Structure formats: structure tokens, C-alpha cells
TrEMBL record:
InterPro entries: T_IF-3_C_sf, T_IF-3_N_sf, Translation_initiation_fac_3, Translation_initiation_fac_3_C, Translation_initiation_fac_3_N. Signal peptide: none annotated. PANTHER family: TRANSLATION INITIATION FACTOR IF-3 (PTHR10938), TRANSLATION INITIATION FACTOR IF-3, MITOCHONDRIAL (PTHR10938:SF0). This is Translation initiation factor IF-3. Its main location: cytoplasm. It is found in: Cytoplasm. IF-3 binds to the 30S ribosomal subunit and shifts the equilibrium between 70S ribosomes and their 50S and 30S subunits in favor of the free subunits, thus enhancing the availability of 30S subunits on which protein synthesis initiation begins. Coiled coil: none annotated. GO terms for molecular function: translation initiation factor activity. Belongs to the IF-3 family. Monomer. NCBIfam families: infC. The lineage of its organism: Bacteria, Bacillati, Actinomycetota, Actinomycetes, Kitasatosporales. Pfam families: IF3_C, IF3_N.
């Protein structure tokens, strides 16, 4: 590498460092964590007490002395203010509570999912009941359901069969969901979207309550809960062939 190329690289690095330093000097911060205690580098601060009371503008040394007196941390909560606003608090406890709130918010966050169910225009009554059961379960969970009617061969000349089937399904689950997108032809398929009456958050809350109730009942009656679990297992095994034939 020639000397000129080396000088060019060094100049670019020096310019990048100068830009970073200038940005930090204007009040930016590389770390997202607030400055606390002796990391605060200003002559005076606007101090807020432990209970939220306004102490006023005090020298930094006085604020650090009060923090030590209360056995708390001096935390910079508004770095861009003039002078910066600092609060006396237990910073470790504050971080823990903030992390728990964020975790609880993520736990309660609702993600609406679009499930899909495929049917044939001349579906068998038993298969229809099985598919409808899946749609009912999805709607109870607060999810949207995309219903697809698949036409093959000569069935494409009879779109009214698919339309009537979609109308029938919408009427059968009207107490749980509504037609969000009316039936429309999409190539060889006809599509309709059902939306749940119940919000996802409500469905999640009810599911958690039901789970807690089952746990409490199982703890109170262990023998009964075991028999119920065996009955559920037997019921699932008896329904498995029907679901397989419906999907086929």
C-alpha cells in the first residue's frame, strides 16, 4: 500500500473520531444507561427528592452529599435540561422494577394471528363438523381465520357451491366471529376471512384463568384430574383419524 493511501485512511479515521466526540459533547450518549453519582459531570443540578418533591437547583457536591445521607443514588433523569434534572432513588431497585414491567408488558402483548382452513365445495358432513370445530377453536383464541374453498375440475363452473358453504359456516360461528372480508374468487379458490368478536388480550386472559382453575382443581382432586386427562387422551385419539381424513 502506498504512502498516499495510508494517509487517506488515517484522515478518514480522524474525521470519524472528531465527529463522534462532537456528537457526545452536544449531549449524546453512547450508552443508553443514565449517568449516576460520580459519573455526573456538571457544576449544578435541579434536584428531585426521593418522594418526587422539588428540592431546587443545588451544587453537584451538595446533591451527592444528600444521596449519601439518604443511602440512595443520584440519577440523571433529564440530561438535556439546563441544568440537568437528577433524582434521588435506589437505582438497582428502579432497574429491577423497570425490567419486570417490560417483561409483563411483553407477556400481555397480543399478536393477532391469521389461521387458515381449507375446504372442498362438496365436503362430507362429518369433515365439515371437524373443520368447523377448528374454526371455533381459532375464534375462541382471538385469532382471525382465512377460509379457502378449493375448486377442482368441473367444480370451477359452480362457484355458488363455495359461496353457500361459506355463508353456512359464517352463520354457524356467528356467535364467535363475524365476516371481516366477504367471499371473493381468487383463481381456483374462493376466500373469506372471519374475525373474532373477542379481542386477543381477552382470550389470553380467559385462557390463563381457565388454566389456573384446572391446576387448582387438579391439586384438590388428583384422582379426578387423572381420570379427566385419560378421557381427554382417549377422545383425542378417537378424533385423530377424522381430522386426518378431513385434511386429506
Amino acid at each position: 500500500m502506498c504512502f498516499g493511501a495510508v494517509r487517506s485512511i488515517e484522515k478518514r479515521r480522524y474525521a470519524a473520531v472528531r465527529q463522534t466526540v462532537a456528537w457526545c459533547y452536544r449531549g449524546g450518549s453512547i450508552s443508553a444507561e443514565p449517568r449516576i453519582n460520580d459519573r455526573i459531570r456538571v457544576p449544578e443540578v435541579r434536584l428531585v427528592g426521593p418522594s418526587g418533591e422539588q428540592v431546587g437547583i443545588v451544587p453537584l457536591a451538595k446533591a451527592l452529599e444528600l444521596a449519601q445521607e439518604y443511602d440512595l443514588d443520584l440519577v440523571e433523569v433529564a440530561a438535556n435540561a439546563r441544568p440537568p434534572v437528577c433524582k434521588l432513588m435506589d437505582y438497582g431497585k428502579f432497574k429491577y422494577e423497570s425490567a419486570m414491567k417490560a417483561r409483563e408488558a411483553r407477556k400481555n402483548q397480543a399478536h393477532t394471528v391469521i389461521k387458515e382452513m381449507k375446504l372442498r365445495p362438496k365436503i362430507d358432513p362429518h369433515d365439515y363438523d371437524t373443520k368447523k370445530g377448528h374454526v371455533v377453536r381459532f375464534l375462541k383464541q382471538g385469532d382471525k381465520v382465512k377460509i379457502t374453498i378449493m375448486f377442482r375440475g368441473r367444480e370451477q363452473s359452480r362457484p355458488e357451491l363455495g359461496y353457500r358453504l361459506l355463508q353456512r359456516l359464517a352463520e354457524d360461528v356467528a356467535d364467535l366471529g363475524f365476516v371481516e372480508s366477504n367471499p371473493k374468487q381468487d383463481g381456483r379458490n374462493m376466500i373469506m376471512v372471519l374475525g373474532p368478536h373477542k379481542k386477543k388480550t381477552e382470550a389470553m386472559a380467559e385462557a390463563r384463568q381457565a388454566q389456573e382453575a384446572r391446576k387448582a382443581e387438579a391439586k384438590a382432586n388428583p384422582g379426578k384430574s387423572q381420570n379427566a386427562a385419560e378421557a381427554d387422551l382417549a377422545e383425542d385419539s378417537s378424533e385423530a383419524p377424522a381430522e386426518a381424513s378431513a385434511d386429506a
